[in-house]
Design a protein that fits this description.
This protein has 499 residues and is an alpha/beta fold. The protein is 38% helix and 21% strand. The longest helix has 22 residues, at 143-164.
Amino acid sequence: MSKNIPEVTLGIIAVSRDCFVRSLSENRRSKVAAACAQKGIAVFEARTTVENETDMLKSVEEVKKAGCNALLVFLGNFGPETPETLIAEYFDGPVMYAAAAEETGQDLIDGRGDAYCGMLNCSYNLGLRRIKAVIPEYPVGTAGDIACMVEDFIPVARALLGLARLKIITFGPRPQDFFACNAPIKGLYDLGVEIEENSELDLLAAYRKHAEDPRIAGTVQDMAAELGADGNQYPGLLPKLAQFELTLLDWAEGHKGARNYVAFANKCWPAFPSEFGFVPCYVNSRLASRGIPVGCEVDIYGALSEYIGACVSDDAVTLLDINNSVPADIYNSDILGKYSYSPQDVFMGFHCGNTPLCKLRKEKNTAVKYQLIMNRTVENGKNPPDLTRGTLEGDIAAGDITFFRLHGNTDGSLQAYIAQGEVLPPSTRSFGGIGIFAVPEMGRFYRHVLIAKRYPHHGAVAFGKFGKALFTVFGYLGVPDIAFNRPKGMLYPTENPFA
């Protein structure tokens, strides 16, 4: 399957108000492009400087012909608010606006651009026209400053481009009593995301048709090489898993339709192990490592969140339960005095085995194993297991993370949360793909965001600190409620000030 995350090709268009010196904006544009190049960011410079609507049409055509799919509109001076905002209307892709700071007190006659003032008019006109655009936190700066803004814009643009061409493919309804996976479709359409819903029987029929697929042997070999001798505990299971992986990849390729990118949200219990003869977790982990997330338990908004995280981070992501508290003995022996987290700041994030191998610790206990909980119900605790094999288990590697979710409520409205933290090094002493997560003021966040706003237990995890980009993406998408883990002293609306 072709790459499932878009590549950003960035263009820059300079604008100039006709009563200002046009060369000032053009020279500043070239300095921005040079500063981007120093950061290793390729930027196509449109040679048409926009002073009027005719220039606007010409410049947009220029960047389109150059293959640009994201754009910086640069106010090198005050700028003409009508044509500069129409650029975003006529350009098919995410657009960021930024303005030039004055460069020296030695040249404030012909060298003064007044872009600080012009940015206000630009923003006002964007609002009048209801045109979406990315405006940085402080959108005025030197060439070096704006190159940093561009650096921040690229992962945002990647996510917006991906969402605009995304189809989420599902198999099966959510499991019984699993309201966490409720997914009102209207919110997806509001975001521009397409959805294709299928039966588990459709997946089973497609899987059976791949029984003699000649590619199975090569996929088995790839799986064995990835797992290594210690991780490949069930070599005889790999042909089934390989057959399933090829089934999903072929379905994605054959069902993208008018879209370019795909994410899955698949049912994986209770009937799956009995009918397929395994659990799909390891295969899900392998797809996630390639930028094709698979939402467990038909969690459509979980899959959507994962895909956004994959685009923003340009890396593998996972979906985890915000699962259980850290026992006091583990906290006292492994965390207290070593990290600046209270017992309420830490929790265990867990799922059966869908986290990619590249995000697990390189230890001997990281391996394809069996789903303990399903083994109790499907196989009556049978040991050695059979039908419930296929998880990828191990402790999640220590490092920075962002826990987040874009969620559709039952009334169709959208809300989101973002919490940055880290996975701590101590061992979990447990099963599944699991880690000890630490988020500052997690206890308050848990009560006054996750519980108060009725979020489900699934959260997407990006491996690194990506809160800034995610907040920009969610804001651009028009999500009205974006929550975060508030620092101590900053109360939530529902928090009791006397507690």
